[in-house]
Structure formats: structure tokens, C-alpha cells
Amino acid sequence: MQKIKVLHIIKSLGRGGAEMLIPETIKFHDQSRFEFHVIYFLFWKDEMVNPIMEAGGKVSCFPSSNNIKLLQQFPKVINYCKEQRIDVIHCHLPWAGFLGRLVFFKTKIPTVYTEHNMQDRYHIITKTLNKFTYNLQSLALGVSDDVTKSINTFIKPKIPIETLLNGVNTNSFRRDPEAGRETRKKLSIPAGAIVFGNVAVFRFQKRLVEWLQEFKKIEEKNSSAYGIIVGFGPLEEEVATEVKRLNLEEKVSFPGLQTDVKPYFSAMDIFMMSSSFEGLPIALLEAMSMECAVVATDAGGIKEVIRNEEDGLICKVEEWTKLSVLCQVLINNPDKLSKFKKAARKRVVSNFSIRKMVDELEMIYEDLAAQPEGK
Prior knowledge:
This protein is of the alpha/beta class and 375 residues long.
């Protein structure tokens, strides 16, 4: 049987949620039936290149220094599709999506786009381009019901829109107590500390300054509280300034960008998210799979994952100052903390596994590949 050739198109291969899903899903796909290719453009963001190749994917970079030059690469992408006999294109994130729609317009290769964000959160240029180009593809997938609803509300497309929830490799993301102890030791965190964590790109929607402010309230009442924030991004300087202002240099560690975040999750007790908006964050699912209790705002898909008081504790986005209060509830009640750690993993294993996601993707790829050209 001839393999279905799927081409993923994405702007970069740094350590973002959408980027990390590509090697993780490729690992689980039936590679006797599917062949995977990946094209990216920002050559300096390449952390996921080796994991993709190790998983069995083929990676090509068409170097582009900005979004306009990225779009200008569409003739090269078309040639690649013809040379490799690509059957299905799968685009991720807006600018790769715009390019993919140009390719679809020219070639009619069935194209699916995964939407990771709410439409009203995009820049006006992105929203406008989305509105005028969304029908130039075969199918769009929202990573949460909220994301799917925002597509239908703001764009009202004529193409099919479905929800495909993000998943995580629950076999790989398992808590490792020894790795957790070693990580705490490396970061000079005492063995008996209660550790609060986050894994995020340092962008405004993650509200890491507010995260620090809430952590400060916790730390003032609990000398054993320590923090770990893994990642980097454009607001690093702002975050560093707030750390100094709050005098948290000795209490919050910043290990920077990490290809392997599992040792850090293993060191955390509570995964605290202060986000103002989200799609369905991969870091949240990873943390839950590794038995971190969750305290978070109900931004976007978070409220579809966390059932308050059952899988974790959540508050409204605008009530983020309650995060420290909710965390204090768990500090004061170790049994409840332990309960939510176990409940978090159970929730992900049951409803957000990568296996479930991949099974649904394979059906989508097969359906698209079987469509008459251009449908």
C-alpha cells in the first residue's frame, strides 16, 4: 500500500507547544501508512529539528528573516510538494497557514490548518488575513472548543471546522522523583521545599510578572516556597526587573530554554498558570501528566481541561489575584495537594493522550487524501 505523504508547515521549530507536537505525534503515527515531511523558515529556531528526524520525519528549512519573506517562499514549497508527491498539507500557526493557503490555491493539495489561538487575540493584520483567506483550505481544527467557537464567531468560514484537542505522551511524561531531587539540588532548592512552577514563552499573555506577584504573596507566608519558571522570550527583561523589585532572586530559578523539561516538572509540586488567554496549552498537559497539581486561571482551553475542585483549582482570568489564595489552600492541606497531583495525571491519561489525538489525525489525513482534487 502506498504511504500517505503529509507535509507539516510551521514558521519555526523552537520549543513552543505547536512545534513540540510535531515530533510527538510523528512518534505515534503508523509509519507503515504515513510518511512525514516538515518545512520551517526561522533557521535559528531549530530545537525540534533533531527530535523530528529521530522520530522518522524529514525536515527542510527555507530560510526567511520575516513574515513577508516567509510568504515569498511559496513557489519553493509548491516545488517541494510536487517533487515529494505530497498528499496532504498540515499547517500550524498563522503565517505558515497563510503560506499553506497560497499553496492550496495553486495546487489544490488537501490542506488542514490547526488553530491554536482565539481570533480576537490576534493582531489586526493577522485577523484580517485570516478572515479573507480562511476558506482557501480544506479543513480547520481548533485545539479547544473555545478556539473552534472563536473561528465560527469571528470568521464564519464555509469550510468544515472541527475540534481536535491537544494531547501529550503520557508514557513519556511520567514523574521521576530522583530526577526531581537532582533538579532541586542543582537549583539550590531545599529538599523539603514546596515548589511552584511554570513552563512558558515569556510573552505578555502568560502574565509572568503577575505570576511573580502572586508567588511573592505565597512566599511571604511560607518560607519553604520556591519557584521555577522554564523558558525564555521577549519579556525576559521585564520579568527579571520584577524579580529584583520583589527581592525574589534567591527564591525563583530561571533555567532558561530547555529541550527536556521533564526533570523540572518532576521538581514541581504545583503548576501555577496566570495566563490572560490560551488555546489549549501543551505545558499544562505535560505538567498534569507528571503529577503536578494545577492552580490556574480559566483562560481558553484551560477550563476544558481542569474541572474546578476535581482536577485542580481555577479562578476567572480577571481574578488572577486569587491564585495565591488557592495555592495556600493546597499548602495548608497536604492531603488535598496529593489528591490533585494524582487527579491531574488521571484526567490527562483518560482524555488528553497523544494516542487519542493521533488516531483522530490519521482519520483526517486519510479522508483528505481520498478527496477528489481541490475539494
